[in-house]
Design goal:
This protein has a six-stranded mixed β-sheet with strand order 11-10-14-15-17-16, with helices on one face. It has a four-stranded mixed β-sheet with strand order 1-2-4-3, sandwiched between helices. The chain is α+β, with helices and mostly antiparallel strands. The chain contains 15 helices and 19 strands. Residues 17-129 form the Schlafen AlbA-2 domain.
């Protein structure tokens, strides 16, 4: 594979390394086993290029490399070690020798490994793939969960009695057909049911969204949403434990209404009267619940979306680990259940791609609440909304997390975080700029935000961007 000097210089201009592009100085040598690991990780992430002889920090100067002078030898060693071919090119750049490893993407349904370790990139590190991610890869090419059959050989009248067809047309904002055939035709087009001979099959997608009672479908009865309300800040005393029965689409509005009804209200004093206001903005609850439904691992047996209500927080969790890192939830989007997500967006149950979590964070800032907390467990993903806290009661991690989320939010609307904007986010006065500065410094130390212009010596007028920008 011929790679030109111009191509090398184009790669050097990218804003940051990606899952498919890696730079290493390797002036004199590069560890062979490490090379094998990078080849495996990049292949598992869709293929890409590893370049030796280039600094990995901007402006990415070409420093030249003396590693692997025998290209035939290293090509052979790579194939023997990891079992697939990697093309190796030597480019005589004016500033030094550059070595380019062109790594192919893995085959569908296959994950590559080195010495038994299935690797992927996570920031600057190479890490083993999670069990959740491996299961997704090995399932590629197989029928997705939504297209599998929930109930076979049902009549037309059974379809109408089992699925809430009326709600579908109301949610999609279309008039209800004048006859049953029109209803069935629309459901077939949406892949909610399949017509086969004189009978119909109800798909998982159809039942999961529009079931009048999920218990009518054996494979989906454990996918019902569970809402548990506790008396205090822990699980010692349960007040109510409710399991929903309706499909996600037809039961969504009722679910959100029920959650809001379980939440304690904050009481504020207006000009004349005391007024009860919601503990959390409804849009935040709606988006987080919808996200949990859309992004759950539907193939995880015996588990479902759970909503736990405490006196000081609302915790929403779903089975499965996310496809992207937690810090990128605000600005990136990747769903493991695309058919489910697409239909729920068209039914206006959730926002368009990538515009949900930013609205959650924006509404949290508007309510002056502590920042959203996203936690990745061993097999579940947790998002938590916290009740109002005074600024003085927030700990360091709260303040740094709020600073990062505010910085991302500003970046997404084409603006930059400043000392003033952060003070406004926390409700701080103009005389508390030093307090905001300390929070920004802590966020920089933890690698969450960075200066837009590192050469700017003035902190008074400094602007900040997320670490990944």
């Amino acid at each position: 594979m011929d790679i030109s000097v111009d191509q090398i210089d184009k790669w050097r201009q990218v804003k940051s390394e990606t899952q498919n592009l890696e730079f290493k100085e390797a002036k004199t040598q590069f560890d062979t086993k490490r090379l094998f690991k990078y080849c495996v990780a990049l292949a598992n992430e869709g293929g890409g290029h590893l370049l030796l002889g280039i600094a990995d920090q901007a402006p990415r100067q070409v420093v030249g490399t003396q590693a692997f002078t025998d290209l035939m030898d290293i090509t052979s060693k790579i194939f023997i070690a990891i079992g697939f071919r990697v093309d190796v090119s030597e480019v005589a750049h004016p500033d030094g020798r550059v070595l380019v490893f062109s790594i192919p993407a893995r085959l569908a349904g296959t994950a590559y490994h080195f010495e038994g370790s299935y690797l992927m990139r996570s920031g600057e590190e190479l890490v083993p793939m999670s069990e959740d991610r491996l299961r997704m890869i090995f399932a590629e090419g197989q029928p997705v969960f939504e297209s599998k059959i929930a109930l076979d050989k049902v009549s037309a009248s059974d379809v109408i009695s089992l699925l809430d067809t009326q709600s579908y047309f109301e949610l999609i904002q279309l008039p209800y057909p004048i006859d049953r055939e029109g209803v069935l035709e629309r459901f077939i087009r949406e892949k909610l049911i399949i017509h086969e001979g004189s009978h119909y099959k109800i798909t998982h997608l159809g039942a999961l969204l529009f079931a009048k009672n999920l218990d009518s479908f054996d494979t989906l009865s454990r996918k019902s949403v569970r809402v548990t309300t506790y008396e205090g800040k822990d699980k010692l005393r349960t007040l109510r434990d409710t399991i929903g029965k309706k499909g996600y689409a037809v039961g969504f509005s009722g679910l959100i209404e029920y959650i809001n009804g379980q939440l304690p209200a904050n009481e504020v004093i207006g000009q004349a009267l005391r007024e009860a206001v919601p503990m959390f903005p409804e849009i935040a609850i709606r988006e987080l619940v919808a996200n949990a439904l859309i992004h759950q691992d539907l193939n995880e047996p015996g588990s479902s979306v759970s909503i736990d209500i405490y006196s000081n927080r609302l915790e929403i969790s779903n089975p499965g680990l996310p496809c992207i890192e937690a810090n990128r939830f605000i600005d990136e989007y990747q769903s493991r259940n695309e058919r489910l997500a697409d239909l729920m967006r068209r039914l206006r149950i959730c926002e368009e791609k990538g515009s949900g979590i930013d609205k959650v964070v924006s509404s949290i800032e508007m309510f002056q609440l502590p920042p959203l907390d996203i936690r990745i467990g061993e097999k579940r993903t947790y998002t938590t909304l916290f009740a109002h806290k005074q600024f003085e009661d927030m700990d360091k991690s709260d303040k740094v997390r709020a600073c990062f989320q505010h910085c991302v939010l500003r970046y997404l609307i084409g603006e930059k975080m400043t000392n003033q904007s952060l003070r406004e986010r926390f409700g701080l006065g103009s005389r508390q700029s030093d307090v905001a500065s300390r929070i920004v410094s802590q966020a920089i130390e933890e690698g969450m935000v960075k200066l837009e212009d590192p050469e700017n010596a003035s902190r008074r007028y400094a602007k900040y961007i997320p670490y990944w920008a």
